[in-house]
């Protein structure tokens, strides 16, 4: 199959996933905007940023192990082995429960470590830490629903049922926004002649709304899996329920490098967030705004990456290395092209973008230069994540981990530390280090994918 013929099926699969990922990030944007309209926005935005980054570093690193399901279920679907795909889903549900238990235990002891993070700003810094601890504790209750959502989603997209995923995330945004409004600011209602009040929970209320929205999300996609099985007869309800520990172990072996890669990528941003936190609440708030923006643009190639994994995996399952290569290159082209467009937007409108989060001119001034640095690495970010997705569909889950370890931690972070502290460039210097790491990752991963295509790919 040529790349031209691959464009239409790739778009049919990718566009609903793009909607889902953009919707996923919209939750974070809405949370940040609403938190930014609380009193003392530099403190509240910084507290939500710190809690969110620390949670995401653990949750998406640990939960990333479940992304190994993409390879196994997609290849089983391509080979027409539905019973095998169903067994992988059931193994994934068991693993999701195990991972969530470990994750929640880690977060419950997290405040002990958080109190050792040095934040500048005196009393304001201590207030940021206090609110961040409460935020993290509340958000932890949404861990199991989050991991179940990740598991059910793998099955749906591998079987080409992506619209329910988009519908789930879009409607979950409405749930999250409504709960944000209800829990952040506090309200009083007249019920049967009686005044009933809901207290204002502030930053912690934002975390509770997210946790409850994730519960809704897991229920929605779980019901969607049941519905598509009933409609299309995939045999899920008749699948053997006996737990196969061999499958769980194979899933961990394949998925652990994926989780490790996600952990490495998120951890570098968490490390930079902590380092910027030393500089005080204002630089940290500016960093959070810029991070939300580049994370939002990243969601589009991230969704395309998921589609690449499915399309490449299905082609490998059918035994067609040519189709697998076309699917991977098509996804990389889409991801790179979109991110080039986003780079132009960030360069043209940095002040207006930052102003959409807060009216504080000091925070806006701190965010603008970071948005400009973010514009410089958009293309490479799009290339590296779509190439990673294509490689995952082919069963190569190690390349992304090794490349990002070198790019971010061996090159990017030391460079950022030198520029940020030794050269007195502050947050901008740290972001330049991130930019260098992403450039290295983009060039390396597209080269690895090219060699993979030339060698030919086979089923895991």
Explain this structure to me?
The protein is mainly α. It has helices at 3-36, 41-63, 68-78, 82-108, 110-114, 123-139, 143-158, 163-185, 203-232, 245-277, 281-318, 321-348, 350-355, 361-393, 399-422, 427-455, and strands at residues 187-191, 194-198. Strands 1-2 form a two-stranded antiparallel ribbon. Helix 1 runs parallel beside helix 12 and helix 7 packs parallel to helix 9 (203-232). The longest helix is centred in the middle third of the chain and has 38 residues, at 281-318. The chain is globular. It starts with a helix and ends in a 5-residue tail after the last helix. The mean pLDDT is 88.
Number of strand segments = 2
Stretches where pLDDT falls below 50 for ≥5 residues? none
Q: Taking strands numbered 1, 2, ... along the chain, how are they ordered across the largest sheet?
A: 1-2
What value does the Rg take, in angstroms? 22 Å
- The proportion of residues forming helix, as a percent range, comes to over 70%
In summary, what is this structure?
The chain is mainly α and 460 residues long. It has 16 helices and two strands.
State the main characteristics.
460 residues; mainly alpha; 2% strand; two-stranded antiparallel ribbon
Any chance you could write out the topology, listing elements then pairs?
Layout: H1 3-36, H2 41-63, H3 68-78, H4 82-108, H5 110-114, H6 123-139, H7 143-158, H8 163-185, E1 187-191, E2 194-198, H9 203-232, H10 245-277, H11 281-318, H12 321-348, H13 350-355, H14 361-393, H15 399-422, H16 427-455
Antiparallel strand pairs: 1-2
Helix pairs in contact: 1-8, 1-11, 1-12, 2-4, 2-6, 2-9, 2-10, 2-11, 3-4, 3-7, 3-11, 4-7, 4-10, 6-9, 7-9, 8-9, 10-15, 10-16, 11-12, 11-14, 12-14, 14-16, 15-16
């Amino acid at each position: 199959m040529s790349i031209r013929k691959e464009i239409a099926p790739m778009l049919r699969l990718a566009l609903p996933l793009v909607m889902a990922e953009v919707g996923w990030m919209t939750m974070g944007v809405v949370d940040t905007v609403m938190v930014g309209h609380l009193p003392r926005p530099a403190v509240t935005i910084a507290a939500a940023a710190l809690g969110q980054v620390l949670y995401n570093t653990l949750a998406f690193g640990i939960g990333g192990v479940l992304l190994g399901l993409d390879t196994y279920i997609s290849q089983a679907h391509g080979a027409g082995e539905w019973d095998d795909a169903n067994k992988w889903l059931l193994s994934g549900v068991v693993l999701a429960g195990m991972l969530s238990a470990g994750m929640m235990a880690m977060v419950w002891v997290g405040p002990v470590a958080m109190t050792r993070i040095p934040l500048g700003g005196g009393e304001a810094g201590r207030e940021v830490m206090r609110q961040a601890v409460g935020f993290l504790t509340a958000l932890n209750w949404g861990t199991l629903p989050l991991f179940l959502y990740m598991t059910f989603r793998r099955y749906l997209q591998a079987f080409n049922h992506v619209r329910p995923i988009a519908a789930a995330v879009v409607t979950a945004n409405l749930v999250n926004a409504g709960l944000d409004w209800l829990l952040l600011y506090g309200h009083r209602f007249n019920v049967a002649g009686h005044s009933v009040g809901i207290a204002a929970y502030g930053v912690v209320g934002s975390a509770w709304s997210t946790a409850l929205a994730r519960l809704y999300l897991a229920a929605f996609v779980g019901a969607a899996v049941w519905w598509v099985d009933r409609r299309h007869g995939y045999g899920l309800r008749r699948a053997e329920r006996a737990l196969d520990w061999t499958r769980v172990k194979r899933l961990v072996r394949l998925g652990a490098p994926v989780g490790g890669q996600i952990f490495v990528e998120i951890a570098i941003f968490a490390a930079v967030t902590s380092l910027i936190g030393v500089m005080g609440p204002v630089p940290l708030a500016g960093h959070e705004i810029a991070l939300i923006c580049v994370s939002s643009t990243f969601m589009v190639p991230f969704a395309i990456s998921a589609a690449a994994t499915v399309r490449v995996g299905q082609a490998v399952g059918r035994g067609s290395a040519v189709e697998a290569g076309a699917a991977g290159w098509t996804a990389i082209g889409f991801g790179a092209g979109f991110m080039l467009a986003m780079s132009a937007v960030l360069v043209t409108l940095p002040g207006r973008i930052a102003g959409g989060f807060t009216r504080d001119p000091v925070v806006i001034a701190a965010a603008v230069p970071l948005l400009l640095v973010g514009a410089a690495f958009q293309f490479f970010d799009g290339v590296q994540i779509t190439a990673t997705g294509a490689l995952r569909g082919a069963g190569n889950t190690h390349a992304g981990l090794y490349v990002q370890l070198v790019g971010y931690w061996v090159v990017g972070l030391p460079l950022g530390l030198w520029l940020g502290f030794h050269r007195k460039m502050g947050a901008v210097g740290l972001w330049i280090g991130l930019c260098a790491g992403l450039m290295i990752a983009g060039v390396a991963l597209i080269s690895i994918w090219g060699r993979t295509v030339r060698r030919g790919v086979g089923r895991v």
